[in-house]
Structures
1.
Amino acid sequence: MTKRVLTEISLPIKSELEEFELLFKNSMKSNVGLVDLIARYIIRQKGKKIRPLLVLLSAKLSGGITQRSYRGAVLVELLHTATLIHDDVVDNADKRRGFWSINAIFKNKVAVLMGDYLLSRGLMIAVGGKDFDFLGVITDAVKRMSEGELLQIQKTRKLDIDEATYFKVISDKTASLLETCCRIGAMSTSENSEYHEAMKIFGESIGMAFQIRDDILDYEGSSKIIGKPVGGDIKEKKITLPLIYSLNQVPRDKANKIKKLIKNNNGKENTREIIEFVRKSGGIDYALKTAHDYSLKAKETLKIFPDSPSKIALEGLVDFVIDRKN
């Protein structure tokens, strides 16, 4: 279902995405055999490619896809791939999209260096194309992503995250890169500052909705549907919006009891009790409404653009983010 919906959304840029795939594959080539081996393994892992999709749709909406648009799409996908590899090392993860992670096969040292290589390749492509305006945007995103991850780690240790901190974390960790995709797409083809700002807000808003929806999935469905264990965030002691809201709805002693369950989580029974608490306290409904509000904001920002298949596709992508089950 997911692949079919994304295929429909990407129809306005079908041929351009095929061109991107070729450029992305070529961007990772190296004279070092081990690098090429890992690059081929990465290409086999067919992800959703939401980030290049955003770059190219934003570019087409803002004036038309150019060579700069392709370089921007390759740059953000290289950065995204690098961060996924580094995240798997940090999280000690064995799997990624159903495949063994790079660190599981080649060990941490090789994984970290491969992530560094991909990041440097992206920067070199931007420099080679004299896309210096992209560099300011992308380096700010890297800074924010790192700070967001570190802030979450800091707060997870104390289990004291509030709504304001949560929104700061997901804005930096997740939304910053989607914001970057949309800004670079608009910048690649237009000098209209209103278009740049609109796409920046669109990317931020869809990124926030995306992450909140992802956090909701941890409390509903089954692992077979969403592709990860339900309650995974709870086991990792991540306090997300459904839980933050729920803890604020009960007396302090009840909230402290739930926090104690999280801190000393020793099995499925505790996880089930926490999930049930969140459901009964309205945490899921509150988070869904918040995600929906961000989706409306994203669609609102598109109103300054003329109607086009690309505009319809971006509106469809917002709906996909809110409705997705994995």
Note: The chain has 16 helices and two strands.
2.
Amino acid sequence: MKRLEVVGKSFTFTDDIDPQYKSLSFQVQVLRGQYNYVRAEFFLEGQELANFLAGDRDYEKLAEEKMRWILELNTTPVDAYMLETMQREQREILGSVEETKAAAIEAASAVADDTKNLAVAAATDVASAAVEEAKVQAVQAATQVADAQTAMLRTAMRKFVRIDELQPEDIADLVGLYDPWIADEAVAVGDIRSYDGKLYKVVQAHTTQADWTPDATPTLWTEIAPPETEDGEEIVPDFVQPTGAHDAYKTGDKVLFEGKIYESTIDANTWSPSDYPEGWKEVTD
């Protein structure tokens, strides 16, 4: 692990009259490479806080243990407390899935046993067909429940992902968490859909059409991408003509226009560098 730093810490107390430690939070950052930081915030409460106060570990040792645990999991840089909550929800959901599968298997076995008994009393061929049908129905029921639980898990995971902090390869790994773009769907501003291996966010509410794919309609969709490449180089997007205040450029926004990089010098900038040069300055660095 490269340089680790505790950048902040604070205690909360039960009340002002008889103050007792209630919780401890501390923020940590680790430099893993040039321009590549992993940041996390940890909360200690209850027995874990009591063990820390009674022990001989300092903040740096505790932070190193927590960060090693996170980095060994190769997780994205989400808040550690949120990560623990997400993992707890995942365990609960997965446990529910396993229970449902076990119940479905048990039900399938019971149905199969009953069907076999009927087969002895009736016709073997008819009974065999009933057994197969029962198995098919049981598998279908288990699959439907598992699919529903998987959708719940995907929704829970999306709540804790900070897309604007991720690297390109991390965003590619998250594409499967989001629903794919489809035609004839009403979408609202801020909705995220996957299309052609990329993630796009809605900037203008509309009903999708087959010829309005996210990559072809920048006035309706914007691609979610990190501000820097893996090598730390700034990513400057191509200039896209704004259609209103919702997608206008702000002061400091940079664009690539006719082979040059320009920076907006005003807010609510809806003009191109050639249409309104006073609203832009060329970046030569």
Note: The CA atoms of residues 69 and 75 lie 10 Å apart.
3.
Amino acid sequence: MVLVNDIWKEVKKIVGNSDDAWTFTRIGDAVELLANKGDFDPLLGTLDICVSGKIVTLPPEIETPIAVNMNKNPALGRDELFQFHLNGPGQCGQAIRYEYTDLGDACTYRELACPFQLHAYCVESADVGKSLRVFGYDQGQNWVRTEISAGVFVDGYLVPVTLQIGVNDADAPFFTRITKITKDLTEGPIKLVTVDEDEEVLLGVYQPYETIPRYRRIQLSHCVSQVRIKFRRRTVVPRSRYDLLPLHSNQAVIMMLRAMKAYDTPGGFAEGEAFEATAVRWLSEEQITRNPVVAHPIQVTDAASISDCDQLN
């Protein structure tokens, strides 16, 4: 991978005498643009995770699940629309073979089992009172809004962040579904929990850099104890000169930054395209040298093996 510090001097020549925060942002933009050009080795990873039930919420560094093994068996991937397909499981059954369905992004590790008030606590005293706003629906299926002054309402509920779980305001809403969370930058992680009969139920641990948490979620066709996931990493903006960028070519990142600078210049579109094409070519050539000589046999899906509701019932 590319160490930010190794390209820092060249990056500063291109970006100019800007503050470090803007420089890191431009590096992150360059990496994201290059990452969109293909599945390069540093962007890929493998995760073994124990599961309970059929819903699996993936860690924040995962952008997209590429392949899944359930109990060491290959699983067939489906998108969210497959539950409406005539050959799909619908809502009244499940497929006989191993399958998983991409459910998109979620902001919590798990769904709420029943209406609960929310608690948030931190590990750093400097984070006490930081903003953690939760959006969603209450037990009456009403959109949660908070009155901040006479007749003035804002969406969501600002969960108090404390060093330990305290007693919530009696008027705090009971959430049945959480749709979005926003949070301040913090010194340490923030935990969001509910309390069920004096037992904590963890909904999320939000890292200092997360401001709008989102995690990829998949649904399994069977209850299994373990899954292995091949995934594509999420690209994030680096925060220090000693962060690693998920690419192998220093020069490709530098060339992409030159392309972005050209795009920002009036009349520099053609020059920017030339720089970008060179950056992508260098990165692709580097990847080709790392690819082993392997064969991928054709995969055949037997639609007859997918049972419908009548067969299952």
Note: Residues 194 and 200 are 6 Å apart (CA to CA).
